């Protein structure tokens, strides 16, 4: 009995099932919902394709908030950036314009069958990098040898990588535990510059990138302060009377120093017809100081001091200006080692006899100069080219074979001569090599 009842029930159930399948096929999705990766501010749409919808309805939901966004073609959410469309057949679309950060997440296309049918699509919103303001960008200052820490924090999706470069393209120098690394670029939010030297002064750029344009960068300035140092390349300059002559000093200082020229008498030189001073910046911390002495007279001969002062200290450099006698015809325009040697020999005798200013010695100072330095020094003798306004009016003084516009100034690079080697510069050199030694250690 029980078996017959069960069989009858099964048949009934089977009949019911078959009826439903044959009579009314259930709605089905024809394709999965897409996933989208969208850049902030762009537009995007999800497409839901449903067959056999019959009287059922398609609805859109935001999965995380469970908020119903739209049913069929009716928008439910109060969001002007959303819209829904239906192509009149089997395709429904949810459009999102000007995508915002909080639009990311799962979206559901749902059909109100019992139980309901649904499918999910995901949206990732890509956000271009943004660099968070940090006061360290306003300009970091350290004394030479000190440390500087630059911080560049960037937001964005996906998380941006932060790369550091120097604006001038030079390498970044990293020092840690006595190790030194020189890198074209450095990756990381924090750039630690330790034992910073003057060459590392300048602008550093942090660039945040996550492949979503635009790629922002931020400029950080690093200032390294140190007391002035002066280098005089040509410590001995000889020029003919009546010519204009340029004396030069090379200054390194940070912050920028106040530079002045003095006579060795202590008188500060003022710009005017006689003296023209110029300063030319070579980089962030070095300058070329020029002093032009116009229409050289005998009282102009002697020592000139270039002086540089900033908050951290002071430095001086000495240039000695001598008369250059032009001997017509026989004087070569370029003096060779032998010429100078010969003169030196003859001068040392005549000098003792003449014993003073009236002597017609060609290079009154060579004797002292030579006695303390080897012959090699003379090898550095050079002629500097330059033109002076007086040139034409003094043509008669010129050796006939000097055809160029080059006044035969003889500039002796006395870098090796201890006599003219500025003691202060020497001390400066020793000081900086000492500092250097400390760094190396
Ligand atoms: C969308 O991403 C989910 C997981 O993130 C994955 O399961 C699904 O297959 C993806 N859909 C498509 C159409 O690729
Ligand atoms: C999403 O963010 C926008 C602005 O970016 C805001 O107007 C909106 O109310 C936010 N929506 C939600 C659900 O938080
Ligand atoms: C300084 O003098 C040198 C040599 O005469 C010249 O080349 C240079 O242009 C001068 N610089 C300035 C700033 O006057």
UniProtKB/TrEMBL annotation:
Biased amino acid composition, Basic residues: 343-360
Polar residues bias: start-end ranges: 379-391
Signal peptide coordinates: 1-19
Acidic residues composition-biased segments: 367-378
Cellular component terms per the entry's GO annotation: neuron projection; plasma membrane
SUPFAM superfamilies: Immunoglobulin
Major site of localization recorded for this protein: membrane
PANTHER family linked to this entry: CTX-RELATED TYPE I TRANSMEMBRANE PROTEIN, DPR-INTERACTING PROTEIN LAMBDA
Protein name: Lachesin
Encoding gene (name): LOC108632953
């Amino acid at each position: 009995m029980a078996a017959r009842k069960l069989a009858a029930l099964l048949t009934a159930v089977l009949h019911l099932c078959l009826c439903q399948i044959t009579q009314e096929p259930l709605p089905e999705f024809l394709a999965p919902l897409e996933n989208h990766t969208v850049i902030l501010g762009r537009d995007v749409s999800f497409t839901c394709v449903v067959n056999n919808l019959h009287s059922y309805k398609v609805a859109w939901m935001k999965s995380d908030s469970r908020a119903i966004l739209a049913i069929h073609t009716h928008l439910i959410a109060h969001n002007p950036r959303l819209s829904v469309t239906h192509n009149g057949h089997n395709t429904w679309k949810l459009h999102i314009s000007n995508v915002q950060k909080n639009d990311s997440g799962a979206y559901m296309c749902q059909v109100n069958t019992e139980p309901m049918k649904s499918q999910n699509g995901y949206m990732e919103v890509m956000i271009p990098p943004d660099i968070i303001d940090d006061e360290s960008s306003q300009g970091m200052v350290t004394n030479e040898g000190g440390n500087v820490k630059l911080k560049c924090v960037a937001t964005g999706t996906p998380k941006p990588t932060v790369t550091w470069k120097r604006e001038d393209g030079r390498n970044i120098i990293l020092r840690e535990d006595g190790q030194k690394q020189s890198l074209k670029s450095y990756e990381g939010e924090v750039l630690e510059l330790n034992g910073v030297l003057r060459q590392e002064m300048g602008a550093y750029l942090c660039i945040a990138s996550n492949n979503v344009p635009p790629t922002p960068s931020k400029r950080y300035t690093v200032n390294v302060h140190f007391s002035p140092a002066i280098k005089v390349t040509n410590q001995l300059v000889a020029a003919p009377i009546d010519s204009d002559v340029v004396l030069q000093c090379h200054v390194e200082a940070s912050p920028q120093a106040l530079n002045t020229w003095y006579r060795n008498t202590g008188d500060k030189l003022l710009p005017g017809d006689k003296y023209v001073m110029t300063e030319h910046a070579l980089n962030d911390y070095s300058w070329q100081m020029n002093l032009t002495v116009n229409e050289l007279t005998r009282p102009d001969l002697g020592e000139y001091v270039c002086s540089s002062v900033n908050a951290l200290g002071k430095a001086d450099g000495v240039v000695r200006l001598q008369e250059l006698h032009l001997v017509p015809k026989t004087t070569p325009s370029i003096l060779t080692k032998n010429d100078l040697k010969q003169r030196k020999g003859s001068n040392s005798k005549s000098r003792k006899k003449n014993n003073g200013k009236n002597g017609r010695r060609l290079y009154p100072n060579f004797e002292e100069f030579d006695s303390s330095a080897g012959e090699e020094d003379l090898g550095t003798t050079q002629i500097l080219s330059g033109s002076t306004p007086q040139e034409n009016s003094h043509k008669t003084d010129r050796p006939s074979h000097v055809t160029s516009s080059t006044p035969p100034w003889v500039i002796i690079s006395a870098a090796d001569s201890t006599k003219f080697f500025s003691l202060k510069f020497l001390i400066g050199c020793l000081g900086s090599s000492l500092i250097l030694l400390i760094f190396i250690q």
